[in-house]
Amino acid sequence: MFTIHRASFRQLLLVAFLLIAGLLALASLGGLFTLERLMVQSRGAAERAVQLTAAAQQLAERSVAMERAARQYMVLDDPMLLQRFNEAATQATHVLDELLAQQLPAALVGQWRQHLVLITGQLQGDKASVRQREQALTTQFRELDLSNAAIAEQVRMGSEARNRHLQTQLEAGRVMLGRQVLGAIGLAVVLALAFALWLTRPLKQLERAIVGLGENRLDQAVDIQGPSDLRSLGQHLEWLRLRLKELDDDKARFLRHVSHELKTPLAALREGVALLEDGVAGELTADQREIAHILGHNAVTLQGQIEDLLRFNAAAFDARRLSRRKTDLTELVRGLVAAQRLQWQAKDLHVVVQGEPLPIEVDPDKLGVALGNLLSNAIRFSPPGGTIRFVVTQPPGLAVIDIVDQGPGVAEGDGARVFEPFYRGERQPEGAVRGTGIGLSIVREYVEAHGGRVDLLPEGPGAHFRIELAHVVY
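The chain above was modelled as a monomer; its predicted structure follows.
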C-alpha cells in the first residue's frame, strides 16, 4: 500500500504533478461540459425559433388563402371554392395546434378560432344578404389578420425572451466557468506551494547537514525527515558524520601523543646538554664544550620546529571549526592594530586603517589570527618610520581587505610559494630572527575556511596582500 513515509521523492513529486494536472483537467472538463450544454440549448432555441417563425408565417399564408377562397365563393357560389376554404382552414387549424403545443397563449388561439367560426358562419348564410355578409366577412378577415399579427408578435417576443434567457444562462455559465478556472488555478498554486515547501524542507536539511560537515561541525546529528530516499541519504550522511568525528578524534589523539612523545625526550636531551655545559659531570675541554653547545642549539632548533609543526597542524585542524557571528570588519582590523600597538610603535611605524563599517558573518577569532599574522609580517619587514595601510572595501558581493607595507616586498621567485608551510622567502629583515614560515600558511587556512581567498599582488615596492570574502549585504 502507498504510504507517505515509504514513498520516495520521485513518487511524491509524481503524485504532486498528477494532483495538480488532475485538478486542472477537472476544471477544463467542467468548462467543456458547460460549454457543450449551452451550445445544445442555443441550437435547440434557434431551431425552435425558426419553427415558430415558420409556423406563424404559414398561418398567415393559410389565412390569405382562406380569405381569397371565401371572397371568390361569395361571388361565384362555387362549391369547389368553399372546399378550398375548408382545406385552408383545416391546414391553418393544424398550424395553430402546433403553435399551441409550443406554448402559444391559449387566449390568442381561442380568439383566432372564434374569428374562424364567425367567418364560416358568414359563408353559410342566406344568399339574399350577400352584400351584408361580404362586409361582415371583410371585417372578420381584418380581425383575423390582426390575430395573425398578434400571434406573430407573440412568437417574436417568445423568441426574444428565450434568447434573453439563453444569454443569461450563457453569462451565468461564463461566470461559473471563470470561477471554476480561477478556483482550480488558485488551488493548484496552493497545492504546488504546499508540495514545494514540504518536499524542499528535507533538501534544505540535507544542505545544512552537508555544509555542517564541510565546516567540521561534527557535534550536530544529521536527522532528515521526508521521503524514504532522502531519509536514507540522511542516514548515510549521519554515518559519514560519525566516521569524520572518529577520524578527527584520532587526529587529535595523534597530535597529543606526538607532542608528548617528542617533547619529553627533547626536554631531557636539552637538560642533559645543559648539565654537561655546566660541568656537572666534570670539566669539559674546549672541543667538548663546542660540541655540547652545538647539541644544545640543535635540540632547541628541533624543538622549535616540532612546535611549529604541531601549531600548523592544529591551525589547519581548527580552521574548519568556525563560529560565525556578525562582525564589523573595519572595527576588527582596528582592534588588531590597537592590540599590536607596542610592536609597531617600537619601530616608529604608522598604521592606517581606511574603510567604512562593513558588517559580515565571520569567525572573528580565526579571521583575527589571519589578519594579525599579516600585520606582524608587515611590522617585521617595514623599515623604521614606514607606513602600513589596511584598506577595507566592498565591491559587489565581496568584502575586501588590502594590507600594504613599505618593506622590501617579496622576491619574484618567492611569490608563488609564500603560502606554503615552512617556506621562508629569500628576502629577510636585516638582523631579525629568521621566521618559521607558517604564518602565511595559517593565514591561507583561516581565510579559505571562510570560503575566501588571499593573494599576493605584484604591486610594489612593498608587499601587498589582499583578502577577499564573500559578503551578503544586510
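The chain has a mean pLDDT of 77.
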